[in-house]
Amino acid sequence: MSLTVAEIAGRIGGTLEGPGAAVVTGVASLHDARTDQISFLSQPKYARDMAGTHAAAVILRPDWQGDTAAGALIRVANPDAAFAQVTLLLANPPIVAAPGIHPTAVIAPTARLGKDVSIGPYCVIEAGAQVGDRTVLVAHVYIGQSALVGEDCRFYPFVSLREYVRVGDRVILHNGAVVGSDGFGYSKQGAVWKKIPQLGIVVLGDDVELGANTTVDRARFGETRIERGVKIDNLVMIAHNVVVGPDTAMASQVGISGSTRIGARCMLGGKAGFAGHIVIGDDVTVCAASGVDNDIKSGAIVLGVPAIPHRDAARRYAAVARLPQLRERVSELEARLKALEETRKP
After folding, report:
1. Are 275 and 256 in contact (CB under 8 A)?
2. Are 119 and 244 in the same domain?
3. Does pLDDT of 345 surpass 80?
4. Helix, strand, coil abundance in the chain, percent, nearest 5
């Protein structure tokens, strides 16, 4: 697919500044873009790349001012969303899975399959499991006994869905995601760890997406629940009996300990860690690599280990950065004080 700059501006409802005849065949970053590619600027820290970009056009906010080597500018209210739209316009055609069951798939006689499902090579669907209409299991997907999968889902290779797990509609599970493995539950008896049975389930709401190699443990009892619209990156670990509220998003390597509750519309930065049995309110932002060991009220922005309000953490980090100068200043003052004491000696 290729479009002119002017055509792209029209498709995304942007205001074009500069020539619109250049043909665009792809997307790229400001730094890497060629003259037949389009880029975008949404964060000020990347403005430094505007002066040297070779992009045919750059999508940016209406109020941006500065030097640019781009062939044209397209001003829109939300550059991120507009660039995502352009990416879809210029992308390769989507891969459409044809309905049907591959001959290598192993499906229990009591499993129930909806209309127009696509079951790829070497998939396994155990007894009593149900797969909804138009759902696609790409290849090497395991659906455990009595698990329920909704409509219009897509599971990529090596997804494992354990027994009794329930999955809503339009759920996407990327390669290697594991849903419903046992929670980390043990009781120490003398010098030996004894396993505590994990008898609960996992429930994934509608429109949930789990990244590659992310794991969601089944509950010790009751449910581990990921509610509607939650978006989870690769390599995230969610322990037993955790509840994640609707429309929350979390980046790679987040770890959430057992029985913690995360509110709605939260944003959790990469490598953030959460202790068990705590409550995080709605609309909370947890910055990357933070360690959260206490409840957080709704609307807060926290940072650090342990996580504290963002402004307090910024002041602490600024003070730490000044420690070398403070040390020199203290040494200087100590030397001056010693000199004054020497002059006062009889």
Report:
1. no
2. yes
3. no
4. 20, 30, 55
Residue 28 vs residues 8, 36, 59, 277: alpha-carbon distances, Å: 15, 10, 12, 43
| Residue 121 identity | P
Q: Is the pLDDT of residue 346 over 80?
A: no
List pLDDT tens digits, range 85-111: 999 999 888 888 999 999 999 999 999
For residue 26, tell me if it sits in a domain. Answer: yes
State the residue range of the domain holding 323.
313-343
Q: Considering only CA atoms, which of 169, 172, 115, 109 is closest in space to residue 138? A: 172
User: What does the pLDDT look like over 63-86, one tens digit per residue?
Assistant: 999 989 999 999 999 999 999 999
> Catalytic amino acids?
240
Residues ≥6 apart with Cβ < 8 Å to 26: 34, 36, 37, 38, 90
Q: What's 296's DSSP letter? A: B
In this structure, what are the phi and psi dihedrals at residue 122, rounded to the nearest 5 degrees?
60, 20
Q: How far apart are CA 107 and CA 24, in angstroms?
A: 46
165 and 287 together in one domain:
yes
pLDDT band for position 8 (cuts 50, 70, 90):
very high
The Cα–Cα gap between 162 and 41 comes to: 43
Residues 117, 70 within the same domain: no
pTM for this model (two decimals): 0.86
